[in-house]
Amino acid sequence: MKTNHLWFGDSWVIGSELYKEPRFRNGSGDPETGGFANAYVSPKYVPNATFGYNMPNFVFGRKVSDTIGAKHWNFGFSGGSISFALYNLYEWIKKYPKELEHNNIVFLSTTAQSRDFARTEEDLCHYHQNIQRHAERHKVFFKDKLRPLIPFSEYESTKTINEMYSVCKAHNIKFYIFNVWGPIHISEEINLVPDECWLIKKTDTLFGLTTGTNYVDILGMPITKGTTENEYQAVEFRVNKSHPIHKEYIHPCQFHPNLHCHDQMANKLLEILDAS
Amino acid sequence: MNKTDVWFGDSWVIGTGLYDEIYQQDKSKTPELHHQELKHTGRFPNLTRDWSHPEYSFASLTSKERDVEYINFAFPGSSIEFQLVQLTKFFKNIYQPNINYTIFFCVSGNTRAFFIDDIEHKEYHVHPKGQLSKESEHNFLTDKWEVPVFFEYNNTRILNQVVALCKNYNVKLHLLSTWEQITTLKHIDVFNLSTHYLLPGTLFNETFGAEIYDVWNDENNDINANYINDYHLNISGHKQMHIKLMEALSEN
Description:
Strand content of chain A: 5-15%
Strand content of chain B: 15-25%
CATH superfamily of chain B: SGNH hydrolase
Radius of gyration of chain A: 18 Å
Helix content of chain B: 25-40%
Largest sheet of chain A: 4 strands, parallel
Strand order of the largest sheet of chain B: 2-1-3-7
Shape of chain B: globular
Number of domains of chain B: 1
Strand order of the largest sheet of chain A: 2-1-3-7
Low-confidence stretches of chain B: none
Number of strands of chain B: 9
CATH topology of chain A: Rossmann fold
CATH architecture of chain A: 3-Layer(aba) Sandwich
Number of helices of chain A: 10
Structural class of chain B: alpha/beta
CATH class of chain B: Alpha Beta
Low-confidence stretches of chain A: 223-230
Largest interface: A-B, 39 and 38 residues
Structural class of chain A: alpha/beta
Shape of chain A: globular
Mean pLDDT of chain B: 91
Oligomer: heterodimer
Order of helices and strands of chain A: EHHHEHEEEHEHEHHHH
Helix content of chain A: 25-40%
Number of strands of chain A: 7
CATH architecture of chain B: 3-Layer(aba) Sandwich
């Protein structure tokens, strides 16, 4: 039976900044859009890629799917939220009902809990505290004006993850979840997702397990406690480019994993999947 | 196998105002004693001191006639989001596989919402009319969404989760619009939600042949005079809705 791997997440899943790798500068002359030949992906299987900026053919999820022999679907989106991941799952179920007859596995790579998404009949609307460029493709919205006063991202994201798990289960889809760059805070009071769905501990990240270093230490992100601090205000990153882990696993990218890091993260995930 | 009906809804389902009607005729039992007696049954986890009498609501009347045990999680001013949290906690903490449950998920107002604060874990209800509950421990706010156009998206997501949960726990579900209907957003309606409703219209409309807003706006309306007490049904009104509900269940 055919196996589909459905990958959901943010820029890390879709391969943002990978065009900066020297091997993709194929003579087009434009480093910002270089590597067109390697960048093309089918919009059916990778609907949210930004052509020339994301390189989903080279991400860790693709290597995992290819190694296992599964069809790789990639719904990652730069700056994407867990809610947008759920929306993409809904769209996939609605658009491709025949795929439900196959063996389907969802991999949800968590993103920042303060991000959000909603849609109307006409518009797709994202909430992200930092990325104004989403306005170029979709309307940016600030859904909850109460949020800066009364933060409730843990509740919202736990509710959304519950929903993604339940909808998968109701459609006989296997559900896996893991943190890739930042840990997530789950509201255990309403959590319905069994621990066995977590490929790694809720407090760990794939990047951390792969490199032995917390991503936020390299990012220079001004986080002091938990997820709720400053999460509704734009954050100015001060990337620590002299950090040896940045040199090995990030450079020539600025904020995202390089090819070597994607490769190592894929190996780590394969090791975890093999063990489970 | 034991059978239990589990009800979720707002003031209409918990029977807000019904004890007021009884108390006008018979003052032998104080509202506080009445509240304490109901609280001790364990059947009404979200009971408030707002003159409700859930035993006279269409929900209890229906379960009694079905001759089954019942739990009623309804709460005045509730959103379907709060109802989903109650349903989630029901499956997490109360559900027993050896009991044959029927879930009655009675849809409430479109524009209401609910959330839990990350830091203090306080629960907040969002209601366009603000403070409704007389329970001080419940926090009511008037506004959560800056742009109200997301209601269809949010409500469809909630109902999707309700259907998915009941399917996953193999529990019978009846969606019911009590007094207002929710429009679903077709882009994410993966369970064909309209097929899960017990009745095509609201229970109020199916019972009385009128829309609640028209009745509210017409003081001389017969339905208003005979079956409504303030913004809620009176005891006779609940009986009528119960009869209609039993009819719908017998045809289902």
